[in-house]
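Hi team,

Filling in the usual template for the complex we talked about on Friday. All components are listed, including any nucleic acid strands or ligand strings, so the model treats them as one assembly.

SUBMITTER: L.P.
PURPOSE: interface mapping
COMPONENTS: two
RESIDUES: 436
SEQUENCES:
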Amino acid sequence: MGSGFIVGVLGVSILAHAAYSTVQYRGLLKIMEDEFSNPPMNVVIELLLGLVLCMWAALTVPGKFLSIHPDSEENRMVSLPGNLDFMIFNHRAKVFRSEIDMKLKL
Amino acid sequence: MVTKTEETQLNRLENQVDNGGGGAWEYLCLVKKLKVRRPDKVLRHGLSILNDPKKRSALGPDVWTLYEQVSIAAMDCQCLDVAKDCIKVLQKQFPESKRVGRLEGILLEAKGLWAEAEKAYSSLLEDNPLDPVLHKRRVAIAKAQGNFPTAIEWLNKYLETFMADHDAWRELAEIYVSLQMYKQAAFCYEELILSQPTVPLYHLAYADVSASSIGVITIARLMRNFHLYSGFCGRDTVLYTLGGVENTLLAKKYYASTIDLTGGKNTKALFGICLCSSAIAQLTKGRNKEDKESPELQSLAAAALEKDYKQRAPAKLPLLTSALKSLKTS
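RESULT (copied from the run log):
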């Protein structure tokens, strides 16, 4: 969590720096009265690096992935719940009394 | 729905609680959440919490649901005086409550006073005609008296209003199965598969029903005691008809989808594939074999079964191999 979070902060700051560089570059173009052809190399590299770092952080920081496979251990149904809304009481408990003779103390 | 992880968790907690390791409240919560029926354990551990003033006050307002849970468990164990005491406590706390009124009705049921219980439910229904639990209890009364036609009638009426209630569909299906009305049961299971397509157990039940409806009923019987079983020869061609082939094919497909959804960890579905394949082979013997689909399915299922048995019950492996062999040769 800790290291992932730091990586995420780093990624975001690199992206912010790339934005700042772009603004500066546009200012420079205006001063030099040049035509815009393509973004400077350092901004592109920063963007790619920021993308990778942010993606990595976003995948690790929030937590573990849960399985979506229906046959995984967390999702595989092994039994249906007892249909308790329809439970009926005439079963063997009537004959075989349970040996619990606890009473509710009022 | 109880998943594999939840089941292991429940068993672990149950072991821990039974051996005096604490965690009774967590266990009771899990039992309630998973809706499993463990009345004796709920009664014992629930009472031990309720009889301890310190533990009881630690629960805060949750104590009232515990009283409810324990009272129902007590009725299930036929400890009616405990149930009565629990209900009395609840009544003192919530004098006008409908939920407590329902519990009283259930207590009447547990005593076997059907007419009184029915009367109690009808008077509660007058105040709140759309309470699903009350309708379900009336079905349960009819069922408890062995009056299945009435139970079916009530359930059908109930399902006209509450169509999305899959518990009720399941109950109806189970009643139909117990009466051997497989066509109707199949309809209910179709409904269940439509509403919850990822539950493999409905696919399995549907496959069982379609297989049973044509006389491969031995499947169901075999599943129940397949360890005792030694020589299924598939010779009983009692009810095998042409319609039977279609149903068996259908059953095989649904067994296959169960295997798909459980990752091949359902023994019953694997057995079902083997039995259906051999039944189909027998039924279509001598006929053109153009519509033979996935012939390797049976051998794959058999291999999976053998692997599973080798791992979990090596002593039963010879039984299994002889049974599978007789299926193949017949």
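MY TAKE: Chain B has three domains: 1-95, 112-183, 198-285+294-330. Confidence is low (pLDDT under 50) at residues 216-243 of chain B.

Thanks, L.
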